[in-house]
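Ticket #4471: structure export looks truncated?
Reporter: QA, pipeline team
Priority: medium

Steps to reproduce: submit the single chain below to the structure queue and open the exported record.
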Amino acid sequence: MAPTDAGFPEKNVMKFSKLMGWSSAFCLGATLLQAQETNEVEQLKQQLKEATANFDRVIKEQRQIIDSLNHRLDVVQAAMTNLPASAPPVTAEQEQKNRAAAEEKAKLEQQLAAELGTNVAPSMATPAVPLAPAWTPAQPMTVARAGSSYMNISFDTLMVVGSSTAHDPSAQLELGDHDPIKRGFSLRNAEIAVDGAVDPYFKGFGNIVLKLDQNNQTSIELEEAYMVTTALPGNLQVKAGQFFANFGRQNSQHPHTWAFVDDPIILTREFGPDGLRSVAAQVSYLLPLPFYTEAFLGILDGQGGTSFSFRNPGDPDSQGVNRFHGRMTIDRVLEGPQDLVYVPRLASSFELTDQQTLVVGASGAFGPNDTGPHSRTEIYGVDMYWKWKSAHANEGFPFVSWQTEGLFSRFGAAADPTATVPGPLPAENLHDWGMYSQVLWGFKPHWVAGLRGEYADGDTGAFDANDVFRGQRTRISPGLTWFPSEFSKIRLQYNYDHGEFFGDQHSVWMQFEFLLGAHGAHKF
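Actual output as written to the record:
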C-alpha cells in the first residue's frame, strides 16, 4: 500500500482549494469594483463637461438677451428725448407719447429683470435682481415671446339692446357697420386685438372683428393689420399694412373708444359703414416747432367697400347691375399713382393753461371713383378737441371735453344714360356737407354725461331719392355712461332722428362692454 502524504492530507487539500477559490473571487471582485469606480469617474467627468458646456451656453444666451434688451432700452430712451432743443413744456399729446414710451421702457426693464431672475439656473441668479411682477387684469396678456419680440392679446365685446320707432333701424337710421342693427339685441363688435414688438425696429398691431347679423349669423373681418417703425431718425415714422386712414378724430378710432353708441351721420355718409380704411402706407413727421405739430400723408389702395367714396363698385340693383349714387359703376383698375387715394393731415396741440388742452386738425382725402373713367372725389375736413380737467382731479374726474368735426365733399359723378330711377342721370358734381359736435362731462369718478348734435345735407342733384346716404338729416343724442372699472362700461343713449326721407324717429339704446386683457394706448 502506498504511503499517505503526511504533509498534505486530503482534507487539507480541499481547504486549500476553497481558499484559492475565495482568493480568486476576491481578486475578481476587486477588479470589477475598480472598473466600476473607473467608469463612475468617467461618467462624473462627462457630466461635469456637459454642465460646463450648459453653463457657457446659458451665459451666452443671457448675454444676448441682455444686449438685445439694452438696445431696445436705448431706442426707447432716444425716442423719449428726441424733442427739439427749444421745445416748451410738453403738450398733452406729446405727454401721452412720452408716457407710452415710458411704459414701454418699464416693460422692457421688467422683461430684463424676468429674464435675469427666472431663465438662469438657481445657483446663478442674482438676489439683487427683482423678479417680474405677476400678471394682473390691467396688463395685456403676453402669449408669445421669442428673444426681443413679444405679443399681447386682448378681447373686447360690445353688445346693444334697445328699441326704435323705426321698424328696421339699420335701413335708414343706423348706417354704420358697428351701430345697432335691429330692435332688441345687437352684437356688432367682438374684437380680438394683438400688438407687440417685432424687433428693435418695428412694432405690429392687428384687429380681427366678429359681428352678428340680424339672423345671428357670424361674419369676420380683418379690420387692421399693420406695422410701424420705432427707430427712424429725424422725427419720422412709417406705417404700413391695413389700417384706418388718419382723417379727423373719430375715423381712426375703434368702436369701444367712441363716446356714443353709434357713428356720426356725416362720417358714415362720406366714408361708408366701415369707415375709410384700406391697405396703405403712411409717413408722419413731427415738426420742430415750439408746440406739438405733426404732419401725415397716407397713400391708400382705395378699392372696395371700405374706400366708400372712391373705387367702390357699389351694390347690385334689382337687375344685378352694380350702382353707386344711382350710377352704374365700372371696374376701374389701378394704372398709376393717379388711381391711388391720398390722405394728408396736419394736427397741432396747445396747452392753453395747466388744466386746458386744445387740439386742432385739418384733413383731406383725394382719389378716383368708379362711376366713370375720369371721375374723382374730394373730401375735406376740420376738427377740434378741447378738454378741461380739474387741478384737484380724482382718477381724472371731474373733466369737460368738447369735440367737433366738419366735412365737405365733392363727388364727381359720371353720366349714366342706363339709369331708370329717377331716369337717365347726367354728369354732375354731388356736394355733401355736415358736422357733429359733442360735449362730455365727467361729473364724478366713473360717471360721464354726454350730448351730441349732428347735421348733414347735400345739394339737390339728379340722384336716386332712395339713396340713404344722401338727403338732409339731423340727430340729437343725450347719453349717460357708467364705468364700473376700466374693463367694463354700461351706456344709456336716446336718439331723436329727423330725415328728409323718413320723418321723425325715436330710439333708446343701452350698450354693454367687457374687456379681457388691455388694448394698447389710443390717440389722445
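Status: closed, not a bug. The export was complete when the record was re-opened. Leaving a note from the reviewer for reference: Confidence is low (pLDDT under 50) at residues 1-9, 79-89, 116-141.
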